[in-house]
Specification:
The complex is a heterodimer. Chain A is an all-alpha fold. In chain A, 42% of the residues lie in helices and 2% in strands. Chain A has helices at 27-37, 44-52, 69-79, 83-87, 92-98, 107-110, 117-123, 127-130, 140-146, 207-226, 229-242, 262-265, 270-280, 284-294; strands at residues 3-5, 248-249, 256-257. Chain A has a two-stranded antiparallel sheet with strand order 2-3. The longest helix of chain A has 20 residues, at 207-226. By secondary structure, chain B is α/β, with parallel strands linked by helices. Chain B has helices at residues 11-26, 40-49, 77-86, 96-109, 125-139, 163-166, 171-179, 194-208, 221-228, 243-259, 267-278; strands spanning 29-34, 54-56, 61-62, 65-69, 114-118, 148-154, 186-188. In chain B, a hairpin with a 4-residue loop joins strand 2 (54-56) and strand 3. Chain B is elongated and about 65 Å long. Chain B starts with 10 loop residues before the first helix and ends in a 24-residue tail after the last helix. The chains are: A mainly alpha, B alpha/beta. Chains A and B meet through strand 1 and helix 2 of A and strand 2 and helix 4 of B. Strand 1 of chain A pairs antiparallel with strand 2 (54-56) of chain B.
Chain lengths: 295, 302
């Protein structure tokens, strides 16, 4: 329902201000927009959800890339929108399609080395610990234009906004790292100095990075929009057929690819698989052609 | 018999809502009183429902009139803060200090233009101090929003609750007294005259005609007015009829007529119910008496 009037019984069971997701909006951004229109401090909607559930798969460390449906239902209720509409703010459905034998989990997208930003923040002691943290970042232009953090900004290895062609920022000008939800500060603002994220630097993409970002983006788009288990296996088979050296040096993660069996590789995270494909130089078009030739 | 749940725009409601609208549009402050059972709460509810309040999925929320009842059994200001917050919907748990600040921001954001506090006889000095703080904060930068404010009270004599209090020498009461409308600080809304209950009876006829096809209530206007201005039902000798009493007398009589298979009510039946309300009002019903029907709950009118 677009407009809720006072005569409606749901008036008293919904938040004072209601928000609905934009196309490709990440749940993080929707929660922050809810905070902002309700005049709450950053993270109040998220903390409301935490208090409303004891679901074991949802806690303060949640990545918000995959969220239990019951939690989405709870949020849908107070915003008076469809929970399926909220499902599109996560990657639950896409990962379920790509990894049908696993319950959807954020590690299927990010890889096993993922730690939530809060975990690292609380326990970090030096640069070494920071090196294992998942990159959380945002596009200052998306924030400035629409208060938007897209789901795609959570995809591993992407460093530039595909829409604005500027670098994602992971820290404020004051040096404070990006923290999505911080008590005592306004939504969409630095947790230390309070600078609005929209004011963070907008650094254009360097010319030598354009092609790589494009390749990455189209591969993610391909897998997330139409990917299946079979398509993933087909892509890996194609990649393995093109590897000449014994050990492939992966271009994005800088790691060496050790496993060579498709059943094992296909269970790796989408980020890892995309790293392999980019390193070998395989495009969605190559995968589609290989599919056709198999038929 | 199916009871009617519709809001009736009676002469009292037109007078009462007229003053509420006056406060809303002129951002003026008043204490508005009427005897219990007049229909004050229903009038407030109806006005709020039709004030244009909405929550859009785009994030825009408008609540032009914020109406609450005074908190019961909570002498602290938190009870009033909670009541005002709850009028917006679900609000996460937050500290009292945060909630005070939030309420100011949210009222400004939702463009609240008029605040109505019902049953103000239950308010205390802490509640009034908070209301002053709230309205002052909204009036100050950056919001600069002045609100209409209606204190609605049930009164039992010719005096209005807090009239003597607001005239007191303490600073808080002087501040309130100054903010109240100069020309119309205290308003008593009278109940219905004999002429005014005539159209109400016509409305009742329309509402219940499908169940009592021959019902003609208007011809009993005079005896109804006489019964309902009896000192038992009109202890303040206002010479006016409250909607609560009128509704009770008429609907009980209509129900009894319906249960007896009649298609209209007569003066005997109306007199029987009037007798019940006046002479036998405190009569005890034996607990072993079974209801021969299940009447719907009486609708509150005041």
């Amino acid at each position: 329902m677009d407009v809720l009037t006072l005569g409606n019984a749901e008036w008293s069971t919904t938040f004072p201000g209601r928000v609905a997701p934009y196309d490709d909006e990440w749940l993080v951004s929707l929660l922050l927009r809810s905070d902002e229109i309700n005049q709450w401090e950053s993270g109040e909607t998220f903390r409301y959800l935490l208090r409303s559930t004891d679901h074991p798969g949802f806690g303060p460390q949640a990545s918000l890339l995959v969220v239990p449906f019951s939690v989405l239902e709870c949020l849908a209720h107070v915003l008076m929108i469809s929970p399926h509409c909220l499902l599109a703010t996560t990657y639950s459905a896409e990962l379920a399609r790509l990894y049908p034998s696993h319950p959807p989990h954020s590690k299927l997208l990010l890889g096993p080395r993922y730690y939530s930003e809060n975990w690292v923040w609380k326990r970090r002691r030096g640069p070494r610990e920071l090196s294992i943290k998942r990159e959380i970042h945002l596009c200052p232009a998306c924030i400035a234009h629409r208060r938007l953090i897209k789901r795609t900004e959570a995809l591993p290895y992407l460093q530039y906004c595909p829409l604005h062609h500027i670098a994602f920022q992971e820290q404020c000008c004051c040096g404070a790292p990006l923290i999505f939800f911080s008590r005592g500060v306004a939504p969409f603002a630095c947790s230390r100095c309070g600078l609005d994220w929209a004011q963070w630097p907008q650094i254009p993409i360097p010319p030598d990075r354009v092609a790589l970002e494009h390749d990455l983006w189209v591969l993610y788009e391909f897998f997330l929009a139409q990917g299946t288990e079979e398509l993933k296996v087909s892509a890996l088979r194609l990649a393995l057929g093109q590897i000449r050296n014994e050990s492939l040096h992966l271009r994005l993660s800088g790691r060496k690819m050790l496993q060579r069996t498709i059943p094992v590789l296909s269970q790796h995270s989408l980020g890892y698989i995309v790293d392999i494909l980019v390193s070998v130089g395989i495009s969605p078009k190559d995968i589609a052609n290989a599919e056709v030739s198999l038929l | 018999m199916k009871p009617c749940r519709d809001f009736l725009e009676t002469a009292f409601e037109r007078r009462f809502q007229g003053w509420l609208r006056h406060a809303w549009h002129n951002r003026s402050w008043h204490v508005i009183a009427a005897v219990p059972g007049s229909g004050k709460s229903l009038g407030i509810h109806d006005l709020v429902l039709h004030s244009g309040a909405y929550k859009a999925a785009t994030g825009t929320t408008r609540l032009p009139i914020l109406a609450v009842r005074s908190p019961k059994n909570d002498a602290r200001e938190h009870g009033l803060i909670s009541a005002l917050s709850s009028a917006f919907g679900v609000v996460p748990t937050m500290s009292g200090t945060l909630r005070r600040c939030w309420l100011v921001r949210m009222m400004a954001s939702a463009q609240v233009e008029c605040l109505i506090i019902d049953d103000i006889q239950d308010l205390n000095v802490r509640h009034f101090a908070f209301l002053k703080e709230l309205t002052d904060n909204l009036a100050a930068p950056p919001y600069q929003r002045s609100l209409g404010l209606c204190f609605v009270a049930a009164h039992g004599s010719k005096t209005v609750p807090f009239q003597a209090t607001f005239a007191g020498p303490e600073t808080l009461w002087r501040q309130f007294h100054r903010r109240l409308d100069t020309e119309n600080r205290y308003i008593i809304i009278p109940g219905h005259t004999e002429e005014e209950i005539h159209p109400i009876l016509a409305t009742f006829e329309d509402l219940y005609r499908d169940q009592l096809p021959d019902v003609q209530l208007r011809r009993w206007t005079k005896p109804l007015f006489t019964w309902l201005t009896n000192p038992i039902l009109d202890p303040d000798a206002t010479g006016r009829v409250t909607m609560d009493n009128l509704t009770k007398l008429v609907t009980i009589a209509l129900r009894r007529a319906y249960e007896r298979g009649a298609t209209d009510v007569d003066t005997t039946l109306l007199g029987e119910v009037a007798d019940l309300m006046i002479l036998r009002r405190d009569e005890i019903t034996p607990g072993d008496t079974l209801f021969f029907s299940k009447p719907g709950p009486e609708r509150e009118a005041g």
